[in-house]
Amino acid sequence: MKVAILGKSRFNGILKEQLSEEGLIPVLFENTDEIKSISGEIGQFRIKTQKETTVAGCVIVTEEPTEFVGLDTIFDNGLPVVILLDDPEESPAYMTEAALVKAIKLAGKRKKVLYLSKFVRTSGSGLENLYKEARNLGVVFVRYGKVDINRDNDTGIFNIRLTDGYDEIGIDTFALIRAGEAAIGSNPGRIAKLLNLKLDEDRYVSGNSYFLSPSLTSRNGVFFLGSTSASNLEEEMLRKIRFTTSAIRAEKGEHTEFAEVDPGKCAFCYTCYRACPHAAMAPDYENSAMKNLNKACQACGICVSVCPAYAVKISGRNVGSGFAPNTLKVYSCKNSGEIALGKITGEMADVYSKISVSTVSCGGEITAEKIVDELKYYEKVLCVTCMDDACRHHEGNKRSRLQISRAKEMLKAAGLDENRLVYMQVSHAMPYILKDCIRDLVG
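Given the sequence above, the corresponding structure tokens read:
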């Protein structure tokens, strides 16, 4: 099987060697600017360049993002934090947005922030609003022509001398944030867009979420090695490489549950395409409808809940109601609530006759309409999802919370008690909090 490696990295040689030892065929695309499109799913990714199209079973991104150094060591000693762009050469355009976001974040924490740049860019998407927000928070913008930086090794203070050809400014700071040496090649945001992956606010594809560590992304068969916040970079990268090659070899390609789209009902509105966290929805132009890439689908059900035409369902699954008056209906995420419930089964024997539990792949698959409909059969409904930033499907828990809020509004509008609906977040390690909540609800 071919494995596509996208991007430049000093670890590419080690990665290629490791893949070859596993019997895999590495295909390197160092100049990612030449890639026009990436489509398909695990086992059949199609990478199209100006010259040819390559079919690969998996994709590994090694492109390292330009990142700011020193962000974890901001000294609160009265000296400003200095963000420096365009030194020693013009910074890539996408760095403007990243720098503004970081300036806003620091200024929001009451830091004095100076933003230094040779060039002022305003043509990017939403940049004007970012500039405005930064200015309102007190960020000071300085345009310079030449910069000279010296660091006092005894005090650790950076002395920055700026000139625009007329005046000269001197700035002292402990925290100099500039484009790091980790910048190799092109914009990782472009690669993420080609692969339909999301970047977090620090321009990492997967953030630091434990369940995606060390190199998994939200898309089956796509691995990301190019970003790490670890101080022991080499050791961490070697660990990622070993994990990635093992994961590729272990992939069986067997997927028994996936979304199915009824093309006769599909409005071709792209709602499911935009909402899917796993890039499993794709346009089917021949039928003027969306289609599901089965091997990419993780059956989270988010597409089902957002489809305005009710054209999507999960194959082989029916999250239905059962008649049990005066009891509690519990919708429990299999990655959190279900595990927590499993730890207290013996201690809940006396109340299990009063509750009905439906396990879901993700809280994001439950709609407000479905929740309200359950009140025909149950006195109360409890939805249990993962903690924030711990959802395997990135935003399923947030969607679930919004659906509960919608359902409560529907009850209020009908003059009914909104407290019949309860939403809570737990981890697999919080069984007793869940137990107490259930006992309170059943009385």
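Residues 259-314 form a domain with the Alpha-Beta Plaits fold (CATH 3.30.70.20). Try to locate this feature in the token string yourself.
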